[in-house]
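Sequence only, no structure available. Ideas?
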Amino acid sequence: QPYCMLIADEVRQAGRMIRMRTFRGDAEWSGKWSDESEHWTNNLRKLLSYSADADDGSFWMDYDDFCRYFNRVWMVRMADDRWTRYTVRSEWRDATAGGSTAYVSWLHNYQWRLRVPPRSKPARVFITVSVPETPTVVRLGADTDADAERGAGGGGGAATLAYTNAIGLDIFRGYSAEDKKRQRLDLGSRADLVHRTEPQFRRKIVTEVLLQPADEPYLLRPFLATPGRESEFSLIVLSDDKDDDGVPDFEFAFVDDADNWKKSWLVDAWEAATAGGPLSVAGWDIGPQYQLLIKESNTRVFLALELIDADRDGRDTAGIQSVFDAYPLVQIAVCEGKGKNVLLTAADGVKVLFGCRSREPYPDGCVLELPAHALPRSDTPYVVLPYTAERGVLHKFAVSCYANKDVDFYKANPEPCDLCPGECKSCPMVQIMRR
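Reply:
I predicted one. Tokens follow.
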């Protein structure tokens, strides 16, 4: 049962002592320095303003006894009305349940922006992430599954509470200049990860962090460790108002679409007729091709290739991947284009400008950053080629394009319709739209 520690001090004539208080009328301490202990003297009671009231819920005990009978201590901060408090209620659902940064799908998770203005004092912030999960009672050392399922009412070992979701929190440095209001899309260097609370199987995690003033914001990214795990959650950001003036010492906001990258997300698959394999083997040009039109100078682009619905063979069942070899190796290349909706062919040759591959550092895909000066503005679209390291690998995937300026990103088709440049004339939506 829990107790509240009120005072801890070294007392003349008594040594190191601690005053405790019970909750809900629980039993008080009955050992040395309890209410009726023979160690008390009238002078000592007067010194500590303490009476032998057996029903007041408070008691004193010796420090050595405290160490003997208690094994956990939590520090509680009493946040009054002058503290700054932000409360967010959200959920990880569908694509936003991206998991930890061990997977490329982490890019889809929500992020929140926290900025400590320059020339202000550092902000000590307390961040809580919690989920409304009810734990399962599990018996340690249960002889059988049936023993474990009996929980608190069964035998076979001590009972403990088990949670199915592991909660974590990342705090990144944000980008600078015109991208400082946008979400983080790369892991960067060690210095870019300000803090990480490793995933824990608990209902709630609490993080304390001291954030230094900076022109760039910090980005908070709460997550569940496993991609595809869905849950509601709450995010609480708490900090003492240094001036007690009711004005927050830092800025806090959700990274919404208005401030974020301009995103395109295209879902496709390598089927039997399109699984051409790497550019080094004949027949690679049967694979899907996408086009990227850069309309303005200084356009910064991130391209992400992600394996999705990883359940098409026994090696990569969704949600239980434990080794990198469970995923097929995939790569993405950006090449010079030859014209709008003109497909590249092996016969004509290909000039690769940039590329990346999975397992560096993600097992389920890769992210390619193209800095502002990497792709000059051009009336001819660049060609983006996602492919597998081996020919004939069948898998569903998604290609995402994030850009700081307007771009056109679409699947190349040599016979586009007049309504959707990237779609085939056989698309059933054409007839519907014309009607």
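Residues 262-434 form a domain with the Jelly Rolls fold (CATH 2.60.120.380).
Hope that gets you unstuck.
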